[in-house]
Structure formats: structure tokens, C-alpha cells
């Protein structure tokens, strides 16, 4: 049970931070201006659960076949890359923005489909794969899914309250710093294991 709780908590924290300032949050805010909040959150949750299940499957398979020292080293380097990616920032493409603004029909299907496609290959998917190489698959899946949905729900609520006056630089630099800290921690752990 302790491993499950640790995997859930770590995955929640990492993915929540990774999602801050991500294009998915921009999509969530855009969809929330067009549809009611509950269908938007259901679409986000379903898409996230599916994408993160695939990510956890890939990560868990890699974790079972690679030595832990090398996994820690690769994960640490990946987290440093995620930090740099966060500093670079994410923006909605014109096609993604148009899809979010013009979607008709079922809000759950529109939001779910858009989020599923947007998350494939995104840093949160890659971070979930990385986390699953070292932690239990169910805790990683649960924590990463809840972390992403919570971050997107927060973006919708804050976006509605504050409009477009979000402190983007603060969010971007804070998230990048946390990724760097996790990355350095994993690299140090790897060096100790590989001695």
C-alpha cells in the first residue's frame, strides 16, 4: 500500500506541475467558454485516462526490462528536458484553437477527441511513461490522471475568475524549476546506483 500511495502522490505532483502552462490548459479554457463545465471535465478525464493508461503500459514495460540505475539516469535527463520544454512554452496551434472554438455536437466527444489527440507525444505523456518505469503502474496511472484533470480544472476556474491575467512567467519558471529539481535528484540517484 505504501508503494501505491507514493506512486500516486509523486505522479500527481509531477503531472500537475507539468500541466501548468501547457497547451491543454489553454484548450480546457477555450472549451469551457463554449460548453458547460461538467461535460468539459468528463471529456478531459476520459481522454487523459486512456492516454495515461497507454503511457503507463509503455513505461512499466520499459521498467521491467532495463536496470534501475540506467532508468534513473534516463529519467533524470528526461526531466531536465521537460524543464527546458516548459520554459519554451506551449501554445495552441491555429487548428487546435479553431477546433476548440467551432466544435458542435456532444461536448464530451468534442473535448475528449481533441484532448486525446493533443496529449499524444506531449510532455505529460512522456513524463507519465518516465514515472511508470520506476513506480507501480496503477498508482502512476491514477496519480497522473487526477493530476492532469486537477490542473486543467484549476485553469478553467482561474481563467474564468481572472480572465487572461494569469501569471504565466511565474507558472512557467516554477514548473521548470521543479522539473530540474526532480531531474537532478534522479541523476544523483543514478550515479550512486551505477558506481
Automatic annotation (TrEMBL):
TM helices/strands, residue ranges: 37-62, 68-88, 100-118, 138-158, 170-192
Entries under Pfam families matching the protein: GDT1
Superkingdom to which the source organism belongs: Bacteria
Keywords: Membrane, Transmembrane, Transmembrane helix
One GO CC annotation: membrane
GO molecular function: metal ion transmembrane transporter activity
Cited InterPro entries: GDT1-like
Thylakoid as UniProt keyword: no
Subcellular location: Membrane
Protein topology in the membrane: Multi-pass membrane protein
Family named by the database record: Belongs to the GDT1 family.
Entry protein name: GDT1 family protein
Amino acid at each position: 500500500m505504501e508503494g501505491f500511495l507514493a506512486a500516486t502522490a509523486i505522479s500527481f505532483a509531477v503531472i500537475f506541475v507539468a500541466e501548468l502552462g501547457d497547451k491543454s490548459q489553454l484548450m480546457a479554457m477555450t472549451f469551457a467558454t463554449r460548453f458547460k463545465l461538467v461535460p468539459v471535465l468528463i471529456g478531459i478525464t476520459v481522454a487523459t485516462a486512456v492516454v495515461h493508461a497507454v503511457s503507463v503500459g509503455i513505461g512499466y514495460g520499459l521498467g521491467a526490462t532495463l536496470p534501475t540505475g540506467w532508468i534513473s539516469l534516463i529519467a533524470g535527463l528526461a526531466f531536465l528536458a521537460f524543464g527546458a520544454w516548459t520554459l519554451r512554452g506551449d501554445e495552441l496551434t491555429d487548428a487546435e484553437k479553431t477546433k476548440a472554438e467551432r466544435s458542435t455536437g456532444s461536448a464530451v466527444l468534442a473535448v475528449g477527441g481533441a484532448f486525446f489527440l493533443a496529449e499524444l507525444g506531449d510532455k505529460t505523456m512522456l513524463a507519465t511513461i518516465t514515472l511508470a518505469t520506476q513506480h507501480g503502474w496503477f498508482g502512476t496511472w491514477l496519480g497522473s490522471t487526477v493530476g492532469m484533470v486537477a490542473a486543467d480544472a484549476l485553469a478553467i476556474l482561474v481563467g474564468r475568475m481572472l480572465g487572461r491575467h494569469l501569471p504565466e512567467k511565474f507558472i512557467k519558471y516554477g514548473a521548470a524549476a521543479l522539473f530540474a529539481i526532480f531531474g537532478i535528484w534522479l541523476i544523483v540517484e543514478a550515479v550512486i546506483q551505477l558506481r
